[in-house]
């Protein structure tokens, strides 16, 4: 049982990628105050937790009801993730829409920032949604097993929250330029992972 939990932790850590979320968070919140950053981090992790719990409980039932095979979902998720990765690589480090933002953003502005791209697709990525559906397969796992998987998922999300709350201290060391560089490098890595998911989904769909 312990080995299964460790395996699930490693899988969820890889697909949620708490460390990889930090540069995305820094690049998207560099214009905010410390208080606003904390609020965005809390909202982003909270929204991501809700989304992943939804897929844990109803994801498989929803896909089966719509007659969508997991490989198709994997391919679609990989495509969405690839588009986001390309925006990280080729997008402006400080988009015009960001430079025009003032320090006193409204709560709705902060909520929108927390939803995209932080909660979705950075934390609750298509890969994470797919992984949680596969790890809690209703045909193979009991309710107890699924509950333990949910606990592992929440643990990874709590670690993600702690890393985001400490990201402001990281920024003091690397600065905005460093955050932009890390964001582009992570975008390249993310593009490779997304393309792999896309190709694997297409391959499995036709097998």
TrEMBL record:
Pfam families: MarC (PF01914)
Residue runs in coiled coils: none
Membrane-spanning residues: 6-27, 39-62, 68-90, 110-135, 147-165, 177-199
PANTHER family per the UniProt record, alphabetical: UPF0056 MEMBRANE PROTEIN YHCE (PTHR33508:SF1)
Keyword Membrane: yes
Protein name: UPF0056 membrane protein
Recorded GO CC terms: plasma membrane
Family: Belongs to the UPF0056 (MarC) family.
Subcellular localization: Cell membrane
Keywords: Cell membrane, Membrane, Transmembrane, Transmembrane helix
Membrane topology: Multi-pass membrane protein
């Amino acid at each position: 049982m312990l080995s299964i939990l460790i395996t699930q932790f490693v899988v969820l850590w890889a697909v949620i990628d708490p460390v990889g979320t930090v540069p995305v968070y820094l690049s998207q919140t560099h214009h905010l105050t410390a208080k606003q950053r904390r609020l965005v981090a809390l909202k982003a992790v909270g929204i991501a937790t809700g989304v992943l719990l939804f897929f844990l409980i109803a994801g498989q039932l929803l896909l089966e009801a719509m007659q969508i095979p997991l490989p198709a979902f994997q391919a679609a998720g990989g495509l969405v993730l690839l588009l986001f990765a390309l925006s990280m690589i080729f997008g402006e480090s400080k988009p015009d829409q960001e430079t025009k933002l003032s320090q006193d953003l409204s709560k709705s502005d902060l909520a929108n920032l927390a939803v995209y791209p932080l909660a979705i697709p950075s934390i609750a990525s298509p890969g994470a949604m797919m992984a949680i559906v596969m790890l809690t397969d209703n045909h193979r796992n009991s309710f107890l097993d699924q509950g333990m998987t949910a606990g592992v998922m929440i643990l990874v999300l709590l670690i993600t929250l702690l890393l985001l709350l400490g990201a402001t201290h990281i920024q003091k060391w690397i600065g905005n330029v460093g955050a932009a560089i890390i964001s582009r490098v992570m975008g390249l890595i993310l593009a490779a992972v997304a393309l792999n998911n896309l190709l694997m989904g297409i391959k499995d769909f036709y097998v």
